[in-house]
Each structure stands twice: as C-alpha cells, then as structure tokens.
Specification:
The chain has six helices and no strands. It is mostly helical.
Length: 138
C-alpha cells in the first residue's frame, strides 16, 4: 500500500480504549440504559473494537478492507459459538473468554456486528477524509 499515509496510532488507540470502556460500561450498568441499548450495545461495540484493532495493526489499509476483515472475524467468532468442545467452553466460561469469544450463537449478534462495523468504518472514513490535503481545482 505505497502512497497511503498511516492512521495516527494515538488517535486509534484512543478510539479503541473509549470503545472498550463504553462496551464494558454497557454490560456493567445495563439498568441505566434503554432496554434496546442495554441488550445490543455490547455486541455492536465489540465489532467496533475489532475494527480499531485491525486499524492499529494495519494502519495503511483501506477502510473497506478493514471493514471486510472485521466482518469476517466477527462472523467467524459468532459461528464458532455453534461448536461445543469442552476446552472451548472452558475458555468461554471465563469473563475474558466470554467477552472475546461470546457464549452462544444469536442471529441478532450478526446484525449488531454489521452495525458496529458500519459505524466504525464511517467514522474512519470521515477521519481519513479530514487528513487528506485539499486540492485546488483550477
């Protein structure tokens, strides 16, 4: 990807940390939120976290490539929840394992992931457009 400038790591690390905090908060304090938000925000923000992680790992990658990679990871993780193996269920039974790998397949999670990827990609596209030097048309 020559010619593409890298995303500013500090900004994307900040987005990652803020998104993780919001996701954990949505799970920790569901009573102070509307039911829809309390039920679906965590999964939506999980996908955004994966997007920010990929943006940090591949800072010159195009937004759509990051979105496609995030979608592939999210769908793989969700479908993997259909596989029940004792060692994998053991991982999922820990708090970190449940947050990263989930606990049970739900179609609604795939919708949440699509929304989370879409929101993160849209924000990334705006941030990328603001970083491009403006050109003067003569």
């Amino acid at each position: 990807m020559t010619g593409r400038s890298a995303r500013p790591r500090a900004l994307y690390l900040g987005l990652l940390v803020l998104t993780i905090a919001a996701g954990l908060g949505s799970r920790q304090y569901p009573d102070g939120q509307p039911l829809l938000l309390a039920h679906y925000a965590g999964d939506t923000l999980w996908a955004a976290v994966v997007f920010w992680l990929l943006a940090l790992l591949a800072p010159r990658q195009r937004t759509m490539s990051l979105a496609a990679g995030t979608t592939a990871i999210a769908c793989t993780v969700e479908v993997s929840q259909l596989y029940r193996a004792p060692w994998l269920d053991g991982l999922r039974s820990s708090q970190v394992g449940a947050l990263v790998l989930g606990q049970g397949f739900q179609w609604s999670d795939l919708v949440c992931y699509a929304i989370g990827v879409g929101l993160a990609a849209a924000l990334d596209a705006v941030l990328q457009a603001r970083r491009l030097p403006s050109t003067v048309v003569r």
